[in-house]
Amino acid sequence: MRFKTLLFLLLVAGAVYYWRADLAIIFSEIRQSDRFATVQLAVTDLKEKVLTSTPLRGSFVTRDTVLTVEGVVRETNARRAAEGLPPLRVNAQLSVAASNKAADMFARQYFEHESPTGEGPGELAEEVGYQFLMVGENLALGNYDDDADLVTAWMNSPGHRANIMHDRFMEIGVAVQKGEFSAEGGSASGGEVWMAVQEFGVPASVCESPSESLLLLLEGNKNKIDQLERELQNRKEELDKERGNRQRHEQLRGEYNALVEEYNKLADATKELVESYNAEVREFNECVAG
Where, if anywhere, are coiled coils annotated (predicted)? Predict the structure, then answer.
């Protein structure tokens, strides 16, 4: 999920301000001193990391062969194992995304990572409910000898190999479908041809998201701080009007100082919450970056 940017103006030191002759000066010092700090919280956009390479076109010579999902997964993990990488887990949602992609390319006769209406691997994953930190996609069109021949063709292409051997990818979905692909759609002669799709993913659950309850508490504190600032301004104006009435002025002075103390305590508490939330954000962003 996405986290919005918070911009707080916080009073970060909690001192008690006592009445002096010139209350206007006191309020001005509070507003203009270094006790205020700007804190901006931002969370990395999870949906920007999509890895693709130019789709791979193979031979369109008719061959009496069959490609299988299980075989492509097995061959893919064998290549990873040869370089000491862990196997990719088959994910049901990514498998549906891969199948949807292959079917859509046949139905609309295109062979690109982005569909004619602009949907790419990220949108495909979202449509099937796969929440991710990073996704990748390999495409192949053509008639290959077998599953090993297909994966070898991908491995011989640097961009496709990079996805297969990426050390952060943990899950995979594969689809292999055979169908009609017209000359206008990219086939040299038209006729039946295999379409193969690999969808790779790093699930969002790998990184613990910053606390939503803490974010809501910060928003509530910000609103309360804004409200107290308005109240302080109103009390200051009322104090200025009552300078000639000593008894009333003394009463208002006490109320004003009590409000300042409440404001400072809330600001101090909020500053600590901001620091905690920022620490969670930093940890999350570092996890996303890998």
Answer: 211-280
